[in-house]
Amino acid sequence: MYRTIISGLFTLFFFSNITLFLGHAFGVDHFNDYQFLNMFGGKGSENGQLVAPHSLDIDKEGNVYVTDTGNNRIQKFDSDGNFVLKWGEEGTNNGQFIKLHDIAVDPSGKYVYTLELKNHRVQKFTSDGNFVLKWGFENTGGKGADRTPHQISIDSFGYVYLTDKNSHQIIKFDKNGKFIKVLGTRGSEAGQFYRPHGIVFDSNNNMYITDMRNSRVQVLDKDFNLITQWGSYGTESGQFSLTFPGIDIDENAGLVFVVDKLLTNIQIFDQTGKFISKFGSKGTGEGQFKRPEDIAIDPQGRILVCDTGNSRIQIFSKTNLTKTS
Fold it and tell me: C-alpha angle 103/108/109, rounded to 5°?
C-alpha cells in the first residue's frame, strides 16, 4: 500500500515538473488556461480558403471579417467559421485591393473599414460588402502617399484612427474620411511612439496601442493622457519582441491580449499591465502559429487568432482565467 502511494506521488511530482519544464523550454505557460476549439481557412483561393490573412475583426453578432490578403479580398464568416460571403479583387478601383492589411467593424456593426498598404487608402463598405466611400492620406500633415498606416480602429463615437508606423503617429478621421488631427511624435516618452502598430478601444474610449520598437503597450485616455504602460524587450513573460502587431481587449474578463509575431505566442495581461498567462508556440499543429498578426475576441469570449503564415484562423476558449480584482 505504502509503495503504491509513494509511486503515485512520484508520478505526480515527475509529470508536474515535466509540464513546468516544457512550459519554460517552449514558451508556453499555464497549459490549462486556454484550449484549442477549432480552426477555419486553409491555403487556397476557393470560398472559405485564405492566403496570408493579415487581420480580422468581429461584429456584435459574432460574424468574422478577414483580410484575405493574398487573394486581394475580404471574406465574411459566421461565428462557427462557415463561409458567408466575399468581396474584392486585385486593383485600384472602388472595392478592389492591393496589399490589404487591416479591417475594422464599427461599433454599430453596419460598416466595415479596410486599410491597404499599396493603394494608401481606407475604404468603407456596408457589412455585406457594398462600397460606400474611400479616402487617402494627403493633407494629413505628413507625406501623403508616403504615410504607412498599418492598423485601423473605430471608437464609440465613430471616429476612425490609424497607426502610422513611419511617422510614429496616430491619424484621426471622422466616419466620412474628414481629417481631424494627428496624435503623437517619435520618442519613448508618454504619448510618443516608435513604430506603433496595433490599436483598439475599450468602452471608455481609452486606446491601447502596441508601441513596437519601444517594446511596450501604451494605454491613453480619450484626451491622449497616459493611463498606464507596460512591457520591455525580451523573450520572458511580459516582454515583447520588436514585432508584436495585434491587440484586443476582453472587458468582461478584464484582460488584454497581445500577439507577438516573432515569439509566435499570445500574451495575456490584466488592464493594469500585470502579466497573467500566455499560450502558443511555433508550428503548424493545433494551437501553434506561424507569423501570427492579429487577434479578436468574439461576443462569447472566445479568442480568434489570425495565423497568417499558416493561412488560417484559430479559435480558443479560456478555461481557468477570471477577471482580476
Answer: 45
Structure confidence at residue 9 as a pLDDT band (50, 70, 90): very low
Confidence bin at 143 (pLDDT 50/70/90): low
Half-sphere exposure of 15 (CA within 13 A, CB side): 5
Note whether 180 and 172 are within 8 A (CB): yes
The yes-or-no verdict on residue 174 having pLDDT over 50 is: yes
Give me the pLDDT at residue 170, please: 95
Distances (CA, A) of 88 to 21, 22, 93, 129, 151: 47, 44, 10, 9, 19
Cβ proximity of 213 and 252 under 8 Å:
no
pLDDT value at 5 more than 50: no
Cell digits for 176? 466620412
Cα separations (Å) of 72 from 54, 262, 320? Answer: 11, 25, 39
R_g over Cα of the chain:
20
Distance from C-alpha of 43 to C-alpha of 88, rounded to nearest angstrom: 18
Q: Which three cell numbers stand for residue 208?
A: 491601447
